[in-house]
Automatic annotation (TrEMBL), chains A, B, C, D:
PANTHER family from the UniProt entry: INOSITOL 2-DEHYDROGENASE, PTHR43593
Annotated ranges, domain Gfo/Idh/MocA-like oxidoreductase C-terminal: 124-314
Protein name: Inositol 2-dehydrogenase
The entry's keywords: NAD, Oxidoreductase
Cited InterPro entries: Gfo-Idh-MocA_inositol_DH, Gfo/Idh/MocA-like_OxRdtase_C, Gfo/Idh/MocA-like_OxRdtase_N, MI/DCI_dehydrogenase, NAD(P)-bd_dom_sf
SUPFAM superfamilies attached to this UniProt entry: Glyceraldehyde-3-phosphate dehydrogenase-like, C-terminal domain (SSF55347), NAD(P)-binding Rossmann-fold domains (SSF51735)
Ranges for domain Gfo/Idh/MocA-like oxidoreductase N-terminal: 1-110
Family from the record: Belongs to the Gfo/Idh/MocA family.
Signal peptide: none
One Pfam family per UniProt: GFO_IDH_MocA_C
Subunit structure: Homotetramer.
Organism: Streptomyces galbus
Length: 326, 326, 326, 326
């Protein structure tokens, strides 16, 4: 995850530069930092925090190392993005909260990435918009194909369901006040001794109920679903195209009104692919020949529209430069 | 579109810097360039091409201006991303092709952004993978809520259907050889005199048939669909979650096997949002309090798992710093 | 419900004749029996059981009257179809079981109609077929637009969830061994004092878990869903076209292989509609003109196929007999 | 098809009795008539028409025999349900129309069974309801897994597309005025020499356009779809659960408001299954034990609701009569 975030900061997002990478295994740090101009590599997190050019910190070390790194960043007044779990034990997590609160300004963001998922954001907007009324229940499903070695029954809760814990708090704007865990007979597909699946029930301070199927060795796919059942409708994400909204008499999805909405990502990817290829001295993507062919076909189309007849398309011979690929 | 691309190059993609902006209306160029460090502004495209630091060109001017700008870029050996239509008339488009071919290396990429849409790419992969066999027909639908003022019957072909022209050539890897346009009675929702909808049929040099419903005043939404009917199955994008694949006996969609696939965009957006906020001296997103609450709830969950009982969650008082928003 | 079943026996199904109708309110019985040849009407159930021609009994009286009627039918050796609940209290239900068991042969069928629903039957077939492995959990949803006057919190369980109780037992082939009921804060749409929705959890003697959302004042629609999560896949009915089956890597529905499957109901309805109209001396449905028009258009189509051209259809003038309706 | 209809009249629908069966192959007629009380068997259609008890006729002979049988039925004033094609050649079909018109009253119904399909009927209701405005185009898909031996290119039109010809005329309430047939390169899955698939275009006297993909050797399933694109929305059947309606800003399906709508067929099947079993002296379906178990579980559920606790279910021992099946 750390190397993945280094790559993301270096090439995936704009406006950031990787100034320093820290890992007790400096060989791994070197590898992650390879090819990044001006970066320094460190064995100790604190040394990286003090490296020249460091203005913010992304923490992706194992959970137990987070508390120390967070406190060190706070001490330097550095903004932090900290992967989840912020701190695995709640006592340590509370110490971080108190340290930040003492400083009097927010420095930490925790890496609950579902809040940035397009579907979850739309679901949040639907709930906040008030159209479907107060949420009464959230039905959640969280399935993994298989669990990594060493995964314990407790980790189904604190590693997997923790995503639903945050998502439920965020979607509902409520705190969770009690929890019950039901344990059906484990699947034959789960490692010996692992209680998988589990069915987890949360109650909230707003009187809502949240149920979560967690099944980390389902074998058939990675599936994350959430249905909010509300006083005037239900809204669901995770298996439809966008939010499936059921209100009086109809079940359906919003249809976008604009190509900029539908193809926003395509424009971003197009320009990014062009920038990436250009920096490597290459040209990829649709060619001038494609541009010419489109014009020639469209012209034939307009003649066909006017004449009402089948109209042949005449193309010039294709120059060798454009090969046969399109 | 030009200003949108300036913003995209400046802040939406990584690895590029906007060095110069050209627009005959320099006020508009100034506006687009506002706040970008080191940028110069020009009335003439050629002046911009010669500005210091210019290593590549994105052309988003009106179509008739493209040919001259492309040839000027070619003359300077600059890579170009040119918005569609590359050149509106096919004679001009052919001159661009010939100029690039004379130069002996590819410099131009045309802005057919559907090739960068996640769903279209998956459809392309399905077709190229050979699993569904040779494509026999493409059924396409292209609907807009309403057309802009001045939109003509011919523009349904050369402005709108041109996307399907390129997508069909790319998906099939075939040239289009003939076209027929059918004109049902126009919709009452279309402006007086506009032949809308139209139904356009293309034949290809591989014996396939492409039909396109183009309806630019449908009123109900922006919809782009494409179904490839092949010798061993059908594959469709544009209304399902990903590619709907129908093969012997089943119709269904691929289920992702991994959270990195499902939430790849969420990770990118999360880190980008963090970088953007940090550069403005702000902290947004999930707070340390959210991190603490997740840990505390997960701990109660593990106790509930072990005891088999309903287990209350005990949270410390929330520091004022975290307000009531989550 | 009683009158509805009388109509169904008289005209909806084949092979049965309504011989006697009983209702303490004989006016209502007369009304239900109106127009049925040879029927007798009774105030007392037992009198109806003894009426000439009675070979079987359908009980659709209020639940508390069922026990006596069932025992009377058993005493006469008459087969019975008894609407649910068979007997509302379990002591009475057990007396019925014991009476039938004493007789040594089965006479009673209970009206759990979901076992006859096409989708539920397909789900049962999928589960029994073994393809998705042992069921681990059933997630059920049962929503009504609104509850009738006088509906109590307990009736959400014994009137509504009783359908899921039977469906779960039938689908799983397991007995339910324990139950827990969770009560989120009631919806503002529920009558004052009604605990609606509820979330009900059943454990089974096979180690499976069954959860049921029951929400009888949801306001937005009548929805019944059931997802079986199994060791090798999940299967769901109630919101898709047939069974949505998710197995390794794909989520999808079976595609029928034959028009007799797809249009089986249409053939039945067609012939039934024709019989019904004919008995009333009427002719409805597609006319000879429709048959002629289809032939004429098909002939033009074959000419178009052969010529490759647009081919006009020539229709004779339409006789007045066929009006303008089709 | 004939034997299938004999079975349907005898046992599938109510209100009819099979009085006579005719087939030049009287052995086949005997077989179809086996077990039907009072039926007579004939080699000649006319003899069957004159058999005692014949009040109406269902014609399911090969198409070329229809004209004679229809005229004979008309001569006797008998109502007829005639399988499609009514008469294969349009001249013969017109003679039937004229004969019926001369008689001055309708006697013939043609077997276009799609008009009786639940989804098509809902689509028709949507179109007639006016909510989506005037239909502009129908996009139809008609796919078979494989064609029977001897199927010709012309039969794709007059045997297969004839269903769409009638459905289009019925849905639109318009006559078809011209037809064009496009022939993509045949699928490798089609028999040598068969032009399959074809793409058929119809124009109507109301200015609408109807396109039909007919593909009778698609290999992957039997699929029949129809999307009506209208001035204010689109409505589609054949792949969703009911009618998929797209109107301003949303795409979705109607949600039923009532269990009688959702489970209407289940009630019919339940009672029919009970009648059928009873006539054979058998009892099938949910047992008294199932009724008892449901009551016992519901009682435990109500105690769980009241106590807020997990509540065990106590069942009496199951009598041997009920075996282990449920």
């Amino acid at each position: 995850m750390g190397a993945d975030h280094v790559r993301r900061l270096d090439r995936g997002v704009s406006g950031a530069r990787v100034a320093a990478v820290a890992d007790p295994d400096t060989g791994r740090a070197e590898e992650a930092a390879a090819g990044i101009e001006g970066v320094t590599v460190h064995a100790e997190a604190e040394a990286a925090l003090d490296a020249p050019g460091v203005e913010a910190v992304l923490i992706a070390s194992p959970g137990p190392a987070h508390e120390e790194a967070l406190l060190a960043a706070f001490a330097r007044g550095l903004p932090v993005l900290c992967e989840k779990p912020m701190v695995p034990d709640s006592d340590g997590a509370l110490r971080v909260v108190e340290a930040e609160a003492r400083g009097g300004r927010r420095l930490a963001q925790v890496g609950f990435m579902r809040r940035y998922d397009a579907e979850y954001r739309r679901l949040k907007r639907v709930l906040d918009g008030g159209r479907v009324g107060r949420p009464l229940m959230l039905h959640c499903v969280h399935r993994n194909v298989s669990s990594p070695p060493g995964f314990t029954s407790a980790m189904l809760i604190d590693s997997s369901v923790s995503h639903e814990i945050d998502a439920a708090r965020w979607l509902l704007g409520q705190e969770l006040t009690a929890v019950t865990v039901l344990r059906p007979r484990p699947s034959a597909g789960a490692p010996q001794g692992l209680l998988d699946p589990q069915f987890v029930l949360f109650e909230t301070d707003g009187g809502a109920l949240v149920d979560v199927e967690i099944f980390v060795n389902c074998g058939f796919g990675y599936q994350v679903r959430c249905e909010a059942v509300c006083e005037h409708g239900s809204a669901r994400v995770g298996e439809d195209n966008g939010v499936l909204l059921t209100t009086a008499g109809t079940a359906g999805a919003e249809v976008p009104q604009d190509y900029l909405v539908r193809f926003a990502d395509a424009y971003d990817r197009e320009v990014q692919a062009w920038v990436d290829a250009t920096r490597q001295g290459r040209v990829t993507g649709p060619t001038a020949w494609d541009g010419y062919a489109a014009s020639a076909v469209a012209e034939a189309g307009i003649r066909a529209l006017e004449s009402g007849r089948r109209t042949p398309v005449d193309l010039a011979p294709r120059p060798a430069l454009y090969g046969t690929s399109r």
